[in-house]
Write a structure and sequence with these properties.
The complex is a heterodimer of chains A (about 350) and B (about 400). Helices cover about 35% and strands about 20% of the residues of chain A. Chain A has about 350 residues and is α/β, with parallel strands linked by helices. Chain A has 2 domains: about 20-225, Rossmann fold, CATH 3.40.50.970; about 230-355, Rossmann fold (3-Layer(aba) Sandwich), CATH 3.40.50. The radius of gyration of chain A is 19 Å and the shape is globular. In chain B, strands 1-2-3-7-6 form a 5-stranded parallel sheet, sandwiched between helices. In chain B, helix 6 links the parallel strand 2 (about 205-210) and strand 3 (about 235-240). In chain B, helix 1 (about 75-100) runs antiparallel to helix 9, helix 1 (about 75-100) crosses helix 10 and helix 2 runs parallel beside helix 8 (about 280-295). Classes of the chains: A alpha/beta (about 350), B alpha/beta (about 400). The structure holds thiamine diphosphate (TPP) and magnesium ion.
Chain lengths: ~350, ~400
């Protein structure tokens, strides 16, 4: 299985322990928080059910016990308040890393994110800054219905002043989260919840392989940061480029294997800043491009990617760019697998793009 | 059983244009009549204070009762000069806007005591999260008038590089958080800032500011929840100047007797104070600040005042309230009241007042000349167009670098 680990130039910077450990995505996130809290006493972690219990997805389990209630605590069910207070804390000089229980519940906080966190540095000409991370589980596939399944990344990438990150595996989750916490600006950290416990490839009818069987569950034990804005090529190929992030990276890999089409799969890791160089180099090589995301199609981040590929690779394209995405409907409960753009839909797109001349 | 159909209720102010000013709904206790509890009092014991008005200056200009603060004649004269400076500043900037030197201005007329007195009670390390109507926080902290004006003119020396609407100042060094323009967002940020100070075990406290109308925003309620839960060292200030543009305070207040009373359900002690009384405002601010500093948690303070001028240079209040409503305002004018007190104390005279007025005007005009030397909105020195790409992020990301190249600046 050509599950290529090649990351783009200089993307891994390590300090401290070189020891590796097998981790799930949850453990990797927890480890990133732990390492960050251990290194910098200004890092504080809070959110709904985050303190004593350790989060509904267990990402903050044990942090309150280890670092005390001053550093990790439960918040009222008030997303506006969670982000609003975090903006004030960040302006004070702390590095809050807050959790919104599900991305679907970030809307009450949206004004604080867009008008405040994202704008503070600009409107004060650098007098006040907002080094803040907002973590939130995204995506469907857990029978969460329309209120536990959304992928609102485009609502963040459209906002100047924010960075938006989506990891696809434990290794990256840890490296990117540490980088996000150390970043001087607000970072939205979207965690595909269907990947928490395994590299889900969209085959919902098959047993999930655990992370322990996947090479990207090998995570450095200590501190390591992956720079924001560097994509990774997960599978090298010559015929077509699939641009994906989060869960869809695994779906793209599965579709490539199953169709036997020699696809190159790019895992963006960070949507903004975006690694345009890696995208352009790949599409100029393959001449074909599929843009893939779980979020709804219209005005999705895929539209931005499509526009960029068109602007930068037009004369290398041998076929129109295709988009595969969630349908433009709310995320349905019982029919979530009809909604989810799984390997069959991606496979069909791969065949179609290879036929067009 | 009733056969009456349901009725929809929309609150209405006591009078409208053409009517006579009517403030009979503002019940005003005698100066000196409200008790001063110890700061560590159980909030349950002082619920009545959320419905009263703490006042110090009586009709004769005497300071009376338990809230008389420890401000000597010199300190009061300084306060007088701060308020006079703010009023003169307002007048000049209002005129500058009329002359087309800037796009917009907002005055403080009638509300000068609130921010000027509060700033004096606050420490140098503390942080205000102000609205656009608290420039007294800067003036009473000796922030340079020229810098304020350069911001208003969005000129080449604007400390925030022409990025914000006039009066949306920002100065970390002067404990003045960058003003957002989105109402009430900063009320909850102040709570977060205060929580951070407590988390770090520091000694700095925060002051949140919001107008009567903006208390209706969810941010206000979020702030009270968090402040109450974590006992944040913050003073939650509500400036009730009776109006929110054209909307009278009853639309935001609804069935709650007062804005201060909003704190009661959260167990937050709430005081209501005569916001046109420099001494009472200072004394109440001091009480609330001491509570915050002594780990006793947040205090909600409602300043009862009146917006004597228009909301902004884009507003004409004669369209929605009686033309002479401000003359009927029962708490008077904060400058006249402090002046009367200073004279009663023997620390001030009419002549000294006139002299100070002339001096202050000269200072403000000199600052204005200097600021205009650096440009106004439509002429002279401007911030660089290149600057629009800076400070979006700490470092310019590739897409903004491409756009800056494209823009040709
Ligand atoms: C979120 C938001 N909604 C609406 C506005 C437009 N607006 C600006 S000032 C104002 C009135 C505010 O009144 P109040 O809170 O009483 O403050 P005051 O102007 O009286 O000091 C309104 C509606 C805004 N700036 N932000
Ligand atoms: Mg008002």
């Amino acid at each position: 299985m050509p599950n290529c680990l090649r990351t783009c130039a200089g993307s891994v910077s390590r300090a401290g322990s070189d020891a590796m450990a097998r981790m799930t995505m949850i453990e990797a996130i927890r480890s990133a928080l732990d390492v960050s809290m251990g290194r910098d006493e200004n890092v504080v972690v809070y959110g709904e059910d985050v303190g004593f219990f350790g989060g509904v997805f267990r990402c903050t389990h044990g942090l309150q016990q280890k670092y005390g209630v001053n550093r990790c605590f439960d918040a009222p069910i008030n997303e506006l308040g969670i982000v609003g207070t975090a903006v004030g804390m960040a302006a004070y000089g702390l590095r809050p890393c807050v959790e919104i229980q599900f991305a679907d519940y970030m809307y009450p906080a949206y004004d604080q994110i867009v008008s405040e966190a994202a704008r503070l540095r600009y409107r004060s000409a650098g007098d006040f800054t907002c080094p803040l991370v907002i973590r939130m589980p995204t995506g469907g596939g857990i029978f969460g219905g329309q209120t536990h399944s959304q992928s609102p990344e485009a609502l963040f990438t459209h906002v100047s002043g924010l960075k938006t990150v989506v990891p696809s595996n434990p290794h990256d989750a840890k490296g990117l989260l540490i980088a996000a916490i150390e970043d001087p600006d607000p970072v939205i950290f979207l965690e595909p919840k269907r990947l928490y416990n395994g590299p889900f490839d969209g085959h919902h009818d098959r047993p999930v392989t655990p992370w322990s069987k996947h090479e990207l569950s090998e995570v450095p034990d200590g501190h390591f940061a992956l720079p924001l804005g560097k994509a990774a090529i997960r599978r090298e190929g010559a015929s077509v480029t699939i641009i994906a992030y989060g869960t869809m990276v695994h779906v793209a890999e599965a579709a490539a294997e199953e169709t036997g089409i020699d696809a190159e799969v790019i895992d963006l890791r960070s949507l903004l800043p975006l690694d345009l160089d890696t995208i352009v180099a790949s599409v100029r090589k393959t001449g074909r491009c599929i843009v893939l995301h779980e979020a709804t199609l219209t005005s999705g981040f895929g539209a931005e990617l499509t526009a960029l590929v068109q602007e930068h690779c037009f004369y290398h394209l041998e076929a129109p760019i295709m988009r595969v995405a969630g349908w433009d409907t709310p995320y349905p409960h019982a029919q979530e697998w009809a909604y989810f753009p799984g390997p069959a839909r991606v496979g069909a797109a791969l065949r179609e793009i290879m036929e067009s001349r | 059983m009733t056969d009456q159909p349901l009725r929809f209720h929309v609150p209405e102010p006591a009078s409208r244009p053409g009517g006579r000013p009517d403030f009979s709904n503002v019940v005003i206790p005698e100066a000196g009549s409200v008790r001063r509890p110890p700061v560590d009092i159980d909030p349950k014991e002082i619920r009545d204070l959320a419905y009263s008005i703490i006042r110090v200056l009586d009709r004769e200009g005497q300071a009376v009762g338990p809230w008389v603060p420890d401000l000597d004649g010199d300190a009061l004269i300084r306060g007088m000069r701060h308020m006079m400076t703010l009023r003169a500043f307002d007048a000049r900037m209002q005129m500058a806007q009329r002359q087309g030197k800037t796009s917009f201005y907002m005055q403080h007329t009638g509300e000068e005591a609130v921010s000027c007195a509060f700033r004096i009670a606050l420490g140098p390390e503390d942080m205000n999260f102000p609205t656009y109507r608290q420039a007294g926080l800067l003036i009473a902290h000796d922030y340079p008038l020229v810098d304020m004006m350069c911001q208003i003119y969005s000129n080449e020396r604007d400390p925030i590089k022409g990025r914000q609407l006039p009066v949306m100042y920002s100065s970390k060094a002067h404990g003045f958080f960058s003003i957002s323009g989105n109402l009430a967002t900063q009320f909850v940020q102040a709570v977060g800032w205060a929580m951070a100070s407590a988390i770090k075990g520091d000694r700095r406290i925060a002051a949140a500011w919001v107008g009567d109308g903006s208390t209706a925003e969810s941010d206000f309620h979020a702030a009270l929840v968090f402040a109450s839960t974590y006992k944040a060292p913050v003073v939650l200030n509500v400036v009730n100047n009776q109006w929110a543009i054209s909307t009278f305070q009853g639309i935001a207040r609804g069935g709650s007797g007062t804005f201060a009373a909003r704190g009661l359900g959260f167990g937050i002690p709430a005081l209501r104070v005569d916001g046109n009384d420099y001494l009472a405002t200072y004394a109440v601010a001091q009480w609330a600040i001491e509570r915050a500093r002594r780990n006793l948690g947040p205090t909600l303070v409602e300043y009862v005042t009146y917006r004597a001028g228009a909301h902004s240079t884009s507003d004409d209040p004669s369209a929605y309230r009686p033309k002479h409503e401000s003359e009927g305002w029962p708490l008077g004018d904060p400058l006249i009241r402090l002046k009367q007190h200073l004279i009663a104390l023997g620390a001030w005279t009419e002549e000294r007042h006139k002299q100070a007025e002339a001096e202050i005007l000269a200072t403000v005009i000199a600052a204005q000349k200097e600021a205009e030397g650096h440009g106004t909105l439509h002429s002279g020195g401007k911030p660089s167009a290149r600057d629009i790409f800076e400070d979006v992020y700490a470092e310019l990301p590739p897409h903004l670098r491409r756009q800056r190249q494209q823009s040709g600046v």
